[in-house]
Amino acid sequence: MLLPLCLTIASWFGMASSALAQPISEPVLALFSFSGPRPTNLGLQNGSLADCPSTPNCVNSQTTDQPHGIAPLRYTSTPEEAFANLKQTIQAQPRTKIVGESENYLYAESTSQLMGFVDDVEFYLDKNAGVIQVRSASRLGESDLGVNRQRIESIRTALKNVDRGTL
């Protein structure tokens, strides 16, 4: 039911042939990409990641704000090993690409499978605190149905498995 509707809409825009050329595993609705503009407040500002907006579609380990707060990522290895493990873990995440990095900061974009929504995901290796600070925020919309929090928790679990040597 959904595929014929998408193909009809795609044909209106002259994209039916490109939609048909996509493998079945690719999301048909991704042609309706809702990426939004890249925020201008990304990166470190005086050792801090940007605050979350008032909308609930963001988590940040550097806030005490209850709906947005999340624990930072802890590590038992050296900071350098932890950051290398983080980078490897991010590269293994589906539909996620690293866009920028430095020796203590990593920025990635994660795209939702069906509608092409883009979330901005940031990591700061806070050597003074012995943790990796995190921020994950949706560019568009009001609610993310907990996707940003789930993403960080999934990364946390993957990193724990790396620390235990189970990956």
Number of extended strands? 6
**Which architecture per CATH?**
2-Layer Sandwich
Count up the domains. Answer: 1
CATH class: Alpha Beta
Quaternary class: single chain
Total count of helical runs of at least 4 residues? 4
Radius of gyration: 18 Å
Approximate helicity band: 25-40%
CATH topology-level name: TATA-Binding Protein
Beta-strand content bin: 15-25%
Helix and strand string, N-terminal first?
Answer: HHEEHEEEEH
Given the C-alpha coordinates, what overall shape results? Answer: globular
Tell me the name of the CATH homologous superfamily: Kinase associated domain 1, KA1
Explain the overall architecture.
- The chain has 167 residues and is an alpha+beta fold.
- The protein has one domain: TATA-Binding Protein (2-Layer Sandwich), CATH 3.30.310.80.
- It is built from four helices and six strands, in the order H-H-E-E-H-E-E-E-E-H.
- It has helices spanning 2-12, 16-20, 79-91, 147-164; strands at 58-60, 73-74, 96-101, 105-111, 118-126, 131-138.
- Strands 1, 2, 3, 4, 5 and 6 form a six-stranded antiparallel β-sheet that branches.
- The chain is globular and about 40 Å long.
